[in-house]
Amino acid sequence: FLMERKTHVKINRKEVMLAKLRKGCSCTPQKLKNFLMDFFPVLRWLPKYRCKEYIWGDVMSGLVIGIILVPQAIAYSLLAGLKPIYSLYTSFFANIIYFLMGTSRHVSVGIFSLISLMVGQVVDRELLLAGFDLNDDAPPASGDGSLQNDNLSSTTAFNLTIVGINAECGKECYAIGIATALTFMAGVYQVLMGIFRLGFVSMYLSESVLDGFATGASLTILTAQVKYLIGIKIPRSQGHGMLVITWINIFRNISQANLCDVITSAICIVVLVTAKELGDRYKHKLKFPLPTELVVIVVATLVSHYGKLNELYASSVSGAIPTGFIPPKVPEFNLMLRVALDALPLAIVSFVFTVSLSEMFAKKYAYTIRANQEMFAVGFCNIIPSFFHSFATSAALAKTLVKTSTGCQTQISGVISAMVVLLVLLFLAPLFYSLQKCVLACIIIVSLRGALRKFRDVPARYHVNKVDTLVWVVTMSASALVSTEIGLLVGIVFSMLCIIVRTQRPRTALLGQIQDTSFYEDDLEYENLTTVPKVKIFRFEAPLYYANRNYFLKSLYRLTNLDPNLEAARRKKYEKKEKQHLKKGNHRTANGLGIRETTLQLVPKQIDFQALVVDCSSISFLDTTGVNTLKEILKDYKNLNISVLLACCNPSVIDSLKRGGYFGKDFGCMREMLFYSIHNAVLFAKDQK
């Protein structure tokens, strides 16, 4: 039987588009109010804020995150190749802007190790191209805590008119100029993606790609910090293969290791790892995480200052961190052109991490986020701070987990964290003058524990899905051994190729009947299935399109043990020979048989079926090549007196077959060619003579 299809009203797309444009371009007070409340979600939830219920959790989590942010901001400045003050600016502005524009109640937006690394790689490359020495590791200035004390004694000054900076600009000035231009462009891309609703781009970054990318980048981050751990001065490698080159340089210069830095690093890592492990083990008993990083930084700074580790043992220290705010400055347009391409992967990675974390915690705490608004939020978290000497930001998993574990309810906690950073910016920054860089490196390396632990999950991942494990390994290897941007691109392309290969060579099977039922399954996978006499049931578990057409035909011919084209050619050849013998008046055929026996001989022994049922339940769509392929097998098998029946086709496939003329002009044969279940097709085939 054939089910009646519903008649769908044809939509005039032109009128729909015009109606949407009219609605979008109209402006009423109510519409303006809704637009502002959608663009600034804080206007919706802040008036409904339950102060007595939420305030304690928000204040507590805000203080804890603020305390964690300060040492991380100073440490991640090493990754970005910038001064610590710029990391503090970034943390401050990102929290304030996301408070106004974000739709997630829990994510912590600010500096993120992976984003800092991507910024740092672009900054280092442009510094080299501009002629600066990346290995300028001069002794710190004896800073007075003011913002005017920016230029180090060994910083080279260049008149950078070639890139649009007409005044003399030192290394630090040029580095932050590159970082802000890169950040501005990344923010512009994110806002444009929000306007054109291109959030679907994130779908092409699978979990395996993201995990592999993060793990590979973590290896790069770890490698970049080793020289600070042991206090050696080696060239900062750039370009492809940075990880390998850096390790070669480390082993070549290992004899120059600073004993003071090695001892300090060993102590700090032991303390940090022990505290983290204890915190993880007893987190259900602790009301909030231990501020281990802050304690380590305070103690290390005091020891370095009073022990005069820089003067006596040449241990590298952070140097002067100015207080206050530098006057805002528009990012250089010519620098934007230089880094426009680099900003694209930065924008995508920043957005994907933010949205994925937002969705994860929204699902966990039963509320919804708007992915498009998140795109705007993270975009403006990059655009606006770029005018205030800040660099790119993203949501960070570790800090978000800490926020939720300490009672965070809303983004009020982000404002509290920003106030803690502001306190450091205005008053406390100069106190970190004597902080050793090896301590910052220890904080960065210990923070990578989560990403590096992914190596332990490889066997379990392999057990679940071998292809996803291969995607993870390829993405991780490319990100670590080539570069982070190339690694991300390789991961996306390789994962898409895996999907294409899966559809090009999908599973195929001949089905048998489950005894005493109307159900059919793979004859090779299940025991005690009954073969249906005179009927072959073929299943193809993928869409049928141009890329897998040949595989479809080869699999069909192999499993049914019959190639209709070869069989038809063999028969024609045989008939031709018989006619030649008959014309000569020889009633005995070429093989010595009579005419009646020849007629029997024309029916080959290997054809043991009279109907072919194609199970289309796994065929999600057909393209033109797919339709033509089905028409081809229909014709070829018909020449051998074998009927082809289609079962379990979805409406999309049926429509494609109708448009392609599979059922003829008037669709009169549909009832004899199309069935809604395999069993119906089998019963019809059995009833045929």
UniProtKB/TrEMBL annotation:
Species, as recorded: Sylvietta virens (Green crombec)
PANTHER family, sorted: SULFATE TRANSPORTER
Family matches, as PROSITE patterns: SLC26A, STAS
Official protein name in the record: Sulfate transporter
Broad class of the protein's primary localization: membrane
Residue ranges of domain STAS in the record: 525-685
Keyword field contains Cell membrane: yes
Molecular function in Gene Ontology: secondary active sulfate transmembrane transporter activity
